[in-house]
Automatic annotation (TrEMBL):
<keyword id="KW-0378">Hydrolase</keyword>
<dbReference type="InterPro" id="IPR047129">
    <property type="entry name" value="PPA2-like"/>
</dbReference>
<dbReference type="InterPro" id="IPR006186">
    <property type="entry name" value="Ser/Thr-sp_prot-phosphatase"/>
</dbReference>
<keyword id="KW-0479">Metal-binding</keyword>
<feature type="domain" description="Serine/threonine specific protein phosphatases">
    <location>
        <begin position="46"/>
        <end position="51"/>
    </location>
</feature>
<dbReference type="InterPro" id="IPR029052">
    <property type="entry name" value="Metallo-depent_PP-like"/>
</dbReference>
<dbReference type="Pfam" id="PF00149">
    <property type="entry name" value="Metallophos"/>
</dbReference>
<dbReference type="GO" id="GO:0004722">
    <property type="term" value="F:protein serine/threonine phosphatase activity"/>
</dbReference>
<dbReference type="GO" id="GO:0046872">
    <property type="term" value="F:metal ion binding"/>
</dbReference>
<dbReference type="InterPro" id="IPR004843">
    <property type="entry name" value="Calcineurin-like_PHP"/>
</dbReference>
<comment type="similarity">
    <text>Belongs to the PPP phosphatase family.</text>
</comment>
<protein>
    <recommendedName>
        <fullName>Serine/threonine-protein phosphatase</fullName>
        <ecNumber>3.1.3.16</ecNumber>
    </recommendedName>
</protein>
<keyword id="KW-0464">Manganese</keyword>
Amino acid sequence: MLNPTVPKPGPAKLTKNAGLEEWLEEAKQCHYLPESAMYPDKITLVRGNHESRQITQVYGFYEECQQKYGNASVWKSCCQVFDFLVLAAIVDGEVLCVHGGLSPEIRTVDQIRVVARAQEIPHEGAFCDLVWSDPEDVETWAVSPRGAGWLFGDKVATEFNHVNGLKLIARAHQLVNEGYKYHFSQKSVVTVWSAPNYCYRCGNVASIMNVGEDLKPKFSIFNAVPEEQRAVPAGRRGAGEYFL
């Protein structure tokens, strides 16, 4: 999660927010989607690799919709929403927000703008790479062990930032036990992980990256709410079996 001011009960006072996580299946309760509809000029949801038909059938969202509503109509409607989520966002022209990483098919930000996004995530190509790629200690590009996207190195990130006048690439996609992690010698990429105690068993902390007028990132670290303090809405059984 990038640059939010967490609202307290009462009139909403929000700065601009970008959600980078696989926000659909990170928790029992997720308010990102309705809040983005309520405050479209304040909240931007960036599509991740889990916001797809294939992945949601593997990680439980499809099954949850079937159990709760008796059919797949809600799941299908959500998938249609996924198809229209943005693939990236830019903060003041200098911080690129993307879920996964870079692509050998994309050299400029303008090329991201023209990617045909209203579709299921393809298995290869620029669209796929943006939601699946990872930074790694490689010279330029390397095959990703994920089976989709690429591993990209310091040279690739530095050149991309230089060409596009960027200072930083902020992304998610990889669990970071400390909540966030800078990559490469020039700190050209940062991974921001905002799901504490991932899957209710990893024990990690999470972070929110705040970017002020000076564009210098500051991180707020937080832990998961203790189990005994969690309020599960009436009719909810809690975490699905896919979290266990």
